[in-house]
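Dear U.,

Please find below the material for section 3 of the report. The protein was modelled together with zinc ion; I have listed the sequence and SMILES used, followed by the predicted complex structure.
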Amino acid sequence: MNQPFTAAAEPAEFRDFGPIKFIPGKKGGRYPYCHSLVIDGDETWVVDPASDKDYLRGLAQTREVTRVFISHFHEDHQKYNYLFPQARFYVPAAEAEAFKSVEGAFALMGLDDPQAREYWGEIMVRQFHFRPLEHLVPYEPGQRFQQGEVTLEIIPAPGHTLGHSCFHFPGQELLFLADVDLTPFGPWYGDQTSSLENFEATLKGLSEYQARTYITAHEQGVYSREEFQAALPAYQKSIAAREDRLLEMLKTPKTVKQLADRHFFYGKPKDPPFIYHHIETQMLTKHLERLRRQGRVTHTNGAYVTNKIQVSG
Ligand SMILES: [Zn+2]
């Protein structure tokens, strides 16, 4: 049974949307944390439990959390899964393997280097408490889950990852955008199974959604409809801005490695270097291969160079 739950010290930006609570992530919801949702009805459900250890531990002690919904397999969305050992974990069917073993996650990331796999595997266990989830329930696009006045609908939003999903709560006119995070960094598609084209299609689809409140998993978190409508085009445009910057840099030929060594996306070295090098390489390759298909760059002798005459289309 549920007992009344009060947090010892509610974070400043804690918000209620009817039965849906917004739990701000530590560090402003920046990696390795993300914002969570708690659905507090007849049952207690949690979305992306990687926000605030003290809050979520308090919740686990005073509520029977029956279900945990996870938007995608990234470690910064499931750091505190272990606090809810009795719950069933609802995960995207397309990436269910990544919740069963770190090797499953490496396969989706395209992380091949043995040294990187060993190092990252240790980080996953030590820092993110990774363990294979026991009560795993794969969900599919369009599936709906209901309790009382709350319906949680699975909105497929691939691109960031293969199975990345948003959660729509029609009764509360609330859309949880997960890692369509509207941050100044722009869209992230740094896994082998991430897709630039899918991300663009996802952004277009989400732009047509009519909700009252939009919630991202990182940084600002809560957006009104007006704020969402203003933030989305800027986020979308960062993809074209990246392409323009690439075409400018490739006026002289450069390899993917040379571009990655210049930290094209992150702008500065980040730790651990080989993981960020992997991400830079993945994101660069997706752009460069598309530009090549479009006839805007040529790939010769391992390097890419901007075509002087741009082929349209
Ligand atoms: Zn992510």
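For the text of the report, you could mention the following: The chain has two domains: 15-237, 250-304.

Regards,
Y.
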